[in-house]
Amino acid sequence: MSRTVLLNKNIIISILIIAAVITLAVVDQYAYRSDSSFTPQMTDETPFKTVDNLEGVTLRTTKGAYRYNVDEMIYSFKNKTGRQYTYGSEFYLEKFENGRWYQLSYAPSKFDGLWTMEGHPLKPDSVREEPLAFNWLYGNHLESGTYRLVKPIHLSGSKDSDIYYLTAVFKIRIFHFL
């Protein structure tokens, strides 16, 4: 084969590979996105009756208020104890209405209600920040109001019955300027 034919063949193969990579990246980006028009509804009253009872460990969001179309936030654990704790990917969003907290319905998605079992360490006397993308589970149109993020955490090496639930309260606002 001539050098020109080989060069053209390599260019075509390169273009196809680049197109495949771009396609996979776009598909992966939207694989867990829910219907953008989904707005979660309040369902049952919260099952988390005892929260924020772990002395020396707190949960916060980096902002106290977000726009209605937020789909990701940063949260942080602050551990002011000499003990190590562990947390995973499990989380819940709840809305405050009429003096009570209510669970939010999940968006129609691939979520089957089961969480993965990874364990992220929260070392003694430390702060750990994590991004939280929740649009795949709750959509990206939260109504105006007061919400809280609920995250389970437990003392590393302890039994599962030693689970604590920490919360971070934040507001969703409809207007564009916070």
From TrEMBL:
Domain Bacterial Ig-like span(s) in chain numbering: 55-159
One protein family per Pfam: Big_14
Transmembrane segments annotated in the record for this chain: 12-32
Keyword field: Membrane, Transmembrane, Transmembrane helix
Name of the protein this chain belongs to: Bacterial Ig-like domain-containing protein
